[in-house]
Design brief:
Blueprint (H helix, E strand, L loop, with lengths): L1 E5 L6 H12 L3 E3 H11 L2 H11 L6 H12 L8 E4 L5 H14 L3 E8 L2 H15 L6 H24 L4 E5 L4 H11 L7 E2 L10
Helix pairs in contact: 1-8, 2-3, 4-5
Bound molecules: BIS(adenosine)-5'-tetraphosphate.
Length: about 200
């Protein structure tokens, strides 16, 4: 079972994906976290990814697809995973579908977090102060949001076109509020777009 967490930078994908993964007892696979760990280790992948991430740009599709393929082959992912920050482009989504087809799997749901841009910027700047991530500056955020609009937002329509269940969640409120909305939505339903509690819909 593969659930994709989708949304603009700072929408809370990582925060919420970790809650759902713990509840479902499947691994939380965050491409951002994997890349940051590679940067810290100074691996070849980290060296290539570091300047791209710091500038708010995406790392190349073929590279990140290989990272995901390797991660999903690990034993703890035998029952599925929660994907956070992947796929971020339509070619990544197509590669994921091909990868899952080979295993007889499919994406079972997409959770799309809707948060207005002014709230996203506030969160990113706050995280920049507390965690010191190099991509959490106003300049890098501007680049990340532009890339989100151009390259990542089309992934939403790709999944709708594939008939995958896409659940929209209002991502504004406390972490618990948002978690409860997601828990309410991730119950079985027909395929299609689910508006959920869509108040505060932003760029998604
Ligand atoms: P990510 O690590 O995915 O960064 P993100 O989009 O900022 O994360 P997220 O939306 O998960 O925000 P979070 O929960 O942390 O990617 C970083 C970079 O890696 C990318 O820019 C790119 O360069 C590269 N990359 C990653 N995946 C890639 C791919 N597939 N292809 C190519 N490149 C890739 O929440 C943000 C902040 O808000 C946190 O401080 C959190 O505490 C706070 N927050 C969360 N929920 C809140 C709430 N309800 N209320 C208040 N604050 C909240």
């Amino acid at each position: 079972m593969i659930t994709v967490f989708f949304g603009p930078p700072g929408s809370g994908k990582g925060t919420q994906a970790s809650v759902v993964a713990a509840r479902m007892n499947v691994p939380h696979v965050s491409t951002g976290q994997i890349l940051r760990a590679e940067v810290e280790q100074g691996s070849a992948l980290g060296i290539e990814a570091e300047p791209l991430m710091a500038g708010g740009n995406l790392v190349p599709d073929d590279l990140i697809v290989r990272v995901i393929e390797k991660r999903l082959s690990e034993p703890d992912a035998a029952g599925g995973a929660i994907l956070d920050g992947f796929p971020r482009t339509v070619p990544q989504a197509e590669a994921l579908d091909a990868m899952l087809r080979r295993r007889g799997w499919a994406v079972n749901a997409v959770v799309a977090l809707d948060v207005p841009e002014d709230v996203l910027l506030q969160r990113i700047l706050q995280r920049g102060e507390t965690e010191g991530r190099s991509d959490d500056s106003a300049e890098a955020f501007e680049q990340r949001i532009q890339i989100y609009r151009a390259d990542t937002a089309p992934v939403h329509d790709y999944y709708v076109g594939q008939g995958v269940r896409v659940c929209h969640v209002n991502g504004v409120g406390t972490v618990d509020d948002v978690s409860q909305r997601i828990a309410g939505l991730l119950k079985p339903a027909a395929n299609g777009v689910d508006d959920g509690d869509a108040k505060g819909v932003g760029v998604a």
